[in-house]
Amino acid sequence: MTLTLIDLTVAPRGASPLFAPLGLAVAPGTVTSVTGPSGIGKSTLLAAIGGHLGADFTVRGRVLLDGRCMLSLPAERRGIGIMFQDALLFPHLSVADNLAFGLSPAVRGRAARRAAVAEALDHAGLQGMGTRDPATLSGGQRARVALMRTLLARPRAVLLDEPFSGLDPDRRARVRRFTFDAVAAACIPALLVTHDAEDARAAGGPVLALG
Ligand SMILES: Nc1ncnc2c1ncn2[C@@H]1O[C@H](COP(=O)(O)OP(=O)(O)OP(=O)(O)O)[C@@H](O)[C@H]1O
């Protein structure tokens, strides 16, 4: 699965485009970083790719996933996962139920779904914590649950919007490694919006500087 942007621009209705036309190919399992000054349109770019932009924006150009054009599809048919800064977990659901919520409907049957959630907990280093209330987890643990929840939906690409910015430097480095490894294991393309040069370096892929 490759994510390709061709001459992509996004403009608030009646205004000029936020950034010059973008061209980019993100290979499966790799992370391309998106940097740029505040307000240049990084989050708006991700929303446009994911299909979450309101009608007050005009998107031009093309977004392809394995050659298939995404822009005419609604968000739910694009299969593109998004993870935001301070990714929120549902406070009224246990950690395991938060993960189950993200799980793709393609995983059928109670036993298979339970096994998939247990595997995700294992992966996130949270064995035995499925019954916990998310509020009792550390910031790093919550970030890992949020990432696993995004990946359990089996997205065909993933967009990460400052997902590490709420974490202290030590946790940040560990969650970052975990995230990039998970993207590689899922073999899907990822875009990472970040203000942090260390994030971009650790991502290992090209850096797209807007503005
Ligand atoms: N509904 C809207 N109508 C017009 N302009 C908007 C609307 N929503 C956002 N904008 C503008 O679009 C621009 C891009 O915002 P966006 O949040 O994508 O920037 P960003 O690069 O992600 O910034 P930051 O790094 O601060 O998160 C901003 O200048 C913002 O003021």
TrEMBL record:
Residue ranges annotated for the ABC transporter domain, each copy included: 3-210
UniProt keyword terms in alphabetical order: ATP-binding, Nucleotide-binding, Transport
SUPFAM superfamilies (alphabetical): P-loop containing nucleoside triphosphate hydrolases
Pfam families: ABC_tran
MF term (GO), any: ATP hydrolysis activity
Source organism, top-level taxon: Bacteria
Keyword Mitochondrion assigned: no
Name this polypeptide is given: ATP-binding cassette domain-containing protein
UniProt organism field: Paracoccus aestuarii
